[in-house]
């Protein structure tokens, strides 16, 4: 009888063993930043079913996209207003996000693609944007950035900005 009680006690004790672990052992999910060499002062956090990370080092849009891809994600994949609130919540300076305009676009506002290359359907443009204001780049201002208030502007892809990556949990 005492032996049976002891077995039950041990089994019960084991069930809570990993409750405080950084990685959830049941789902395998984790939300950790890219390596420090790629992402300065990172803030990695879960929001709206997605892992987001802000990186304060400045990179061109292509270089930032490569860092996010190496991490297993994208430049911030913002699909709706909730996603936009998630991404904007930790941004303190204008930062690259996922949308990029096709080189075949015929105006400032058409043919915007999400970070996967599919036509984007959600936008949060600042009043007067996108405007192709910089005439010095082929196609003019074909990459989207996020301002700290949650609005977007189109900007020159070769500019060096902080960036936001995302990936599914
Ligand atoms: Ca453009
Ligand atoms: Ca602009």
Explained architecture:
It is a single chain. The protein has helices at 2-15, 61-70, 81-88; strands spanning 43-47, 50-59, 74-75, 95-101, 112-113, 143-146, 152-155, 161-168. It is an alpha+beta fold. It has one domain (31-168): Mannose-Binding Protein A, Chain A, CATH 3.10.100. The strands form 2 sheets. The chain has a 4-stranded antiparallel sheet with strand order 1-2-8-3. A 4-stranded antiparallel sheet has the order 5-4-6-7, with helices on one face. β1 (43-47) and β2 (50-59) form a beta hairpin. 32% of the residues are buried. Bound molecules: calcium ion (2 copies). Residues 101, 105, 108, 130, 132, 139-142, 154 line the site of one calcium ion.
Question: Topology of this protein?
Answer:
Elements: H1 2-15, E1 43-47, E2 50-59, H2 61-70, E3 74-75, H3 81-88, E4 95-101, E5 112-113, E6 143-146, E7 152-155, E8 161-168
Antiparallel strand pairs: 1-2, 2-8, 3-8, 4-5, 4-6, 6-7
One calcium ion binds next to strand 7.
In a nutshell, what does this entry contain?
The chain has a single domain (31-168), classed as Mannose-Binding Protein A, subunit A (Mannose-Binding Protein A, Chain A, Roll), CATH 3.10.100. Mean pLDDT is 86; it is low at 1-22.
Q: What would the keywords be for this entry?
A:
3 helices; 169 residues; 4-stranded antiparallel beta sheet; disordered N terminus; binds calcium ion; alpha+beta; Mannose-Binding Protein A, Chain A
CATH fold type: Mannose-Binding Protein A, Chain A
Looking at this structure, what is the CATH superfamily?
Mannose-Binding Protein A, subunit A
- Fraction in helix: 10-25%
Total domains, how many?
1
Strand order of the largest sheet: 1-2-8-3
Mean pLDDT: 86
Query: What is the string of SSEs from the N terminus onward?
Result: HEEHEHEEEEE
Cα-based radius of gyration, to the nearest Å: 21 Å
Taken from the alpha-carbon principal axes, the silhouette is globular
Helix tally equals: 3
Please name the CATH architecture.
Roll
- Note the gap between the termini: 46 Å
Secondary structure: number of strands: 8
Q: What is the multimeric organization of the chains shown?
A: single chain
Strand count, sense and barrel status of the largest sheet are: 4 strands, antiparallel
